[in-house]
Amino acid sequence: MEGMTKDKVEETRELEWALIPPREVSQVDGIVLEKNICNTWDKVWNFQAKPDDLLIASYPKAGTTWTQEIVDLIQNNGDIENSRRAPIQLRQPFLEWFRRVTPGIDQANAMSSPRTLKTHLPVQLLPPSFWEKNCKIIYVARNAKDNMVSYYYFQKMNKALPEPGSWDEYFETFMSGKVMWGSWFDHVKGWWKKKDSHPILYLFYEEMMKDPKRVIRKVMEFLGKNLKEEVLDKIVYNTSFDVMKKNPMTNYINDPEMNHNLSPFMRKGVIGDWKNQFTEAQNKRFNEEYEKHMADTSLSFCMEL
Ligand code: A3P
After folding, report:
1. pTM of the predicted model, to two decimals?
2. Annotated active-site positions, please?
3. What's the 260 CA to ligand 1 centre distance in angstroms?
4. Is 81 exposed, middle or buried (0-12, 13-18, 19+ CB in 10 A)?
5. Could you give the CA distance from residue 178 to residue 257 in angstroms, rounded to a whole number?
6. Cα pseudo-dihedral 153, 157, 162, 164, rounded to 10
7. How confident is the model at residue 98 (pLDDT cuts 50, 70, 90)?
8. Distance from residue 267's CA to the centre of ligand 1 (Å)
9. Of all protein residues, whose CA lies closest to atom 25 belonging to ligand 1?
10. 228 C-alpha to center of ligand 1: Å?
């Protein structure tokens, strides 16, 4: 697109985006996943983790990228330039994903150790080698209402995911758990339970928003690092929403499957945005179902400030 005006580049990107066919979905053990993943599921399931692998796991749109950037900066002792060496999806392979041609598994296998990997898989679908090798895992969860709204806008702008339909339609799809990577309820509860028998640091998007430095320190300790206060402050600043939104290595601006004009990847980054989206009736219905789904867990979430 060299020599084109900024407007022309935008227009060309929009046209190219419109022509990308949507990806298809299928299921593994009742969990909706992208078809390529399902067709090569054995390859994912038989992935060989190594004892020094670190895994960042989450339900989609829970603050994964934010956590990934925090981890990368801690691992690099706060070296900003080093963390800008490549887009986040190349620094930390997305295990089960097909990045158009290169599967995350191949990316991970080609990488030297120690590796940091990302997954959205529900706990029961995680390749068993992660448990066998006792790998450290960081899980990040976000309250269901904001998570749902964020996922809706992401499905609108990302050709790698199914078209969400109207908000009312999407509300039903999300509540039924027939979205990619399955039910939010089962996901957050499954990983929460697993932390009793495995080294999992369970984080919340909302606690990261309220006190990022405290969470960054927690992650640092989990990784066995010891960084100075000023380095922690630098990491807080460089992983703030405004800085990450402008950082091409974290904002997915160059991903051709995403249309940031429809909705930017770094969209709002707030707690309680669901209030702008849920109708009163949806909120009532959601609260009733939420209570039933969450009756068998000690897990609790902050849904507004
Ligand atoms: P919104 O759509 O609500 O804005 P994931 O990385 O799991 O896909 O999550 C994306 C969500 O995290 C988006 O939420 C995005 O704006 C938000 N996010 C990303 N980086 C953030 C940051 N540094 N601070 C706060 N929110 C952030």
Report:
1. 0.97
2. 120
3. 14
4. exposed
5. 22
6. 40
7. confident
8. 7
9. 269
10. 26
